[in-house]
Amino acid sequence: MSAIPPLLAVEGLTKSYGGIHAVRGVSFSLRAGEILALIGPNGAGKSTCFDMLNGQNKPDSGHVRLLGEEITGRKPREVWRLGVGRTFQITATFATMTVRENVQVALVSHGKQLFNLFGSAPKFDRGEAGRLLELVGMGGYADRPCGELAYGDLKRLELAVALANQPKLLLMDEPTAGMAPRERVDLMRLTASIAREKSIGVLFTEHDMDVVFEHADRIIVLNRGTLIAEGSPAEVRGNPQVQAVYLGEGLVYDARHREGAST
Amino acid sequence: MAFYVVQFLTGLASAASLFLVASGLSIIFGVTRIVNFAHGAFYMIGAYIAFTLTERLSGAFGFWGSIVLAALAVALIGVIVEMVLLRRIYHAPELFQLLATFGLTLMVEDLVVLIWGPDDLVGRRAPGFKGAIDFFGQNIPSYDLFLIVLGPVVLGILWLLFQRTRWGVLVRAATQDRDMVAALGVNQKWLFTSVFAVGVFLAALGGALQIPRDAVHHAMDLRIIVEVFVVVVIGGLGSIVGAFVAAVLVSELNAFGILIFPKISIILVFLVMAVVLIVRPWGLFGKPEAAARKTPGLTVNPWRPLTSNERLASLAALVIAAMLPLFAGNYALTVGSEIAIFVIFAVSLHFLMSVGGLASFGHAAYFGLGAYGIAFLAKMAGLPMIVCLLLGPLLGCLGAAVFGFFAVQLSGVYFAMLTLAFAQIVWSIAFQWVSVTGGDNGILGLWPSSWAASPSHFYWLALGVAALVMIALRAMVFSPFGYALRATRDSLLRSEAIGIDAKRIQWTAFVIAGTTAGIGGALFAYLKGSVFPDNLGISLSVDALVMVLLGGVETVSGAVIGAIVYKALNIWLVSQTDLSKLVLGGFIMLIVVVFPKGIVGMLEMLAQRRRKSSPPGSPLLAKPIESAE
């Protein structure tokens, strides 16, 4: 074990609902600047696992540590203060506020000005809000009401909001679900470049194997609540157990690649 | 010992009616998601009709037949209400449904007096249950024993109905997911109507069965509805077993509370409710509601601060309003002061409701507390007016801090019901604690100091304070705090995920709104020269809600216009007719059905449409204060 604790260390995470063991003894770690994909079939426990990382859900046992500090069971807002941003599977944004205001709220919270009663919020960190929106390619939408946005744009807005507190770790639950293929590639490319540039660790769950194999540095595979494989994309792809679990998707993926190789 | 047993049995007997009404409310809510405020009104009509029928039809068969017949008749009225009114507003925000059924309640209150007169009516005793049974020297009315048995029997029948019939299965399915049930080809209209009829039948039956125990009177609707809200909050909305257990609990607390705090026994119930809400916010048997709450106005125009032109226009409107004493008489000035005070009251609720998404149904509590604060300071401590005006609203602030802490633990209809219950508790304290508050006689002789005594001076004072309050609250909407508050309204999940302590933000907003309402109440006490329990009553709370909705809940300052129009209309109506509740109730239903966006909301919409067709730069919506002249 190195002297510096990893950015995120998960140890023996366990959660059951009644008799169903949703997550059983899951352990893994994540370094700064690394992009880690958490994959698994439906019902594997990905979302449960994910929600326990930022306090949305409380584990029965196990530990979550951020840079060595225990964050297990802390409230989502406390985990955020420690530098963990997150996006949701179904986007959660402030629908009646404009795109810029959405980002400004996060900046207000980051600047601990939440109880500032008489300041001017429209002017609050306007420049920084603009920069974040430019970063995710939403600069032109700043004054649009958030409720009008297309789904793919909401996902990008969520990313901008999640970046507002200069996080060390980004948790993205199915960041490209519901997006067009072209948008998926763009969003993940963007995320990867931001993560590498700012040395942010990214953990994401994803069903689209193209996205996973193209962008993840490392992959962990969850099935029925337990971790069945861990390694580089090539290692995971070659893992017979993973292939068994992912038979359908794995075949499609392989077939496409062979096709591509033969032409 | 025997005394306590008898007290316990009396409690159980009271629980029967309460359970009937509460289970009806619960069933209706479960399927239609409507919190039927008019449930108390149906209970009352049930009692009145049963009274009339039992007077006409003689004999045991006549009596029991009348009870059932009355309940059926009211169920029929319920069906008509559902088909004519509620069907139009199932997809409106929850708030509008509560308000529409409140409008109905107001109308019923006047109609009942019109038909049966204002006096208490004492009904017949139940044939076969006229006597009392001796229990170790204590008397128990045998009718009480009948009710004690009836409660569990009705619970059993309802259970069978829901578990063993096809209709019951549909109702349970719709309670879980009504869209899915509709997708499966069930006729939803029929299902909703029948559920509403059953719920109303239970309420009316509860009312009819009260005749042998209690006099029938025209205020019994509000008393029962507050108790029923407390019951369903404790038991859990949508749970019939919860309604039963909570009805027994509340009735027993009332029965024994009277022994402990004879004057303010309702405090005990309140304490239990507070404890339940802290431990289980969804009630003892309720389930946490899936957050299906619609965000108010997804189509809302983005809010923005006033431009400099608009500021000038508002200032001009204020100046014009300030010139009123130059040409108006004393009566007009008094009316003007009252309107200014209600603007303060309305914008305070608007801040909580529009910006915070928290629809308080008991906002008058803080208005009234501000007024009583003045009364205590001026009459008991003998402080001068200026000191009173500064300190009096603090009582509203204190009340809002205590009640708000509990209220913000909940949201949506639970929040509305809880705030209503709190207000009713404050009202009963003011009403019952005669030695301090003077009870129904109020506290008289609160006159402004000489510097504010003349109508024009007082008008300027009220107008000035109203302007300050408007400016301050509007500034808060566009402050970092205002953004955070809007964020908690739009998405709790996202707010928590970006480090916002939503409950604390909402609590703070509640305290700000309560204190502001207290300022309005303080001025009101000086305007009227007296304070009465009515200053914190339900009807005043509803006035505030109507003003906000009339102005437009999706606007930044619509309540200003709403308050001016509504209050002017109200003062005029009361001078014209004795049936002001009837007209007002009809008016409320009209707003809900026809103008869901309110006056300012509608003007904004029109202005936006015009802007789209004409080049930009056209003046925006009418200025808030313009119509103050």
UniProtKB/TrEMBL annotation, chain A:
GO terms for cellular component: plasma membrane. Pfam families: ABC_tran (PF00005), BCA_ABC_TP_C (PF12399). It comes from the Bacteria. GO terms for molecular function: ATP binding; ATP hydrolysis activity; L-isoleucine transmembrane transporter activity; L-phenylalanine transmembrane transporter activity; L-valine transmembrane transporter activity. One of its GO terms (biological process) is L-valine import across plasma membrane. Keywords: ATP-binding, Nucleotide-binding, Transport. Residues 8-249 form the ABC transporter domain. Belongs to the ABC transporter superfamily. Involved in beta-(1-->2)glucan export. Transmembrane domains (TMD) form a pore in the inner membrane and the ATP-binding domain (NBD) is responsible for energy generation. This is ABC transporter ATP-binding protein. It comes from Bradyrhizobium forestalis. The lineage of its organism: Bacteria, Pseudomonadati, Pseudomonadota, Alphaproteobacteria, Hyphomicrobiales.
UniProtKB/TrEMBL annotation, chain B:
It is a multi-pass membrane protein. Keywords: Amino-acid transport, Cell membrane, Membrane, Transmembrane, Transmembrane helix, Transport. One of its GO terms (molecular function) is branched-chain amino acid transmembrane transporter activity. The keyword Ion transport does not apply. The chain crosses the membrane at residues 6-27, 34-51, 63-86, 98-117, 145-162, 190-212, 224-249, 256-279, 312-333, 340-361, 381-406, 413-434, 458-485, 505-527, 547-569, 581-603. GO terms for cellular component: plasma membrane. One of its GO terms (biological process) is amino acid transport. The keyword Transport applies. It is found in: Cell membrane. InterPro entries: ABC_transp_permease (IPR001851), BCAA_transport_permease (IPR052157), LivM-like (IPR043428). Pfam families: BPD_transp_2. Signal peptide: none annotated. Belongs to the binding-protein-dependent transport system permease family. LivHM subfamily. PANTHER family: ABC TRANSPORTER ATP-BINDING PROTEIN, BRANCHED-CHAIN AMINO ACID TRANSPORT SYSTEM PERMEASE PROTEIN LIVH. This is ABC transporter permease. It comes from Bradyrhizobium forestalis.
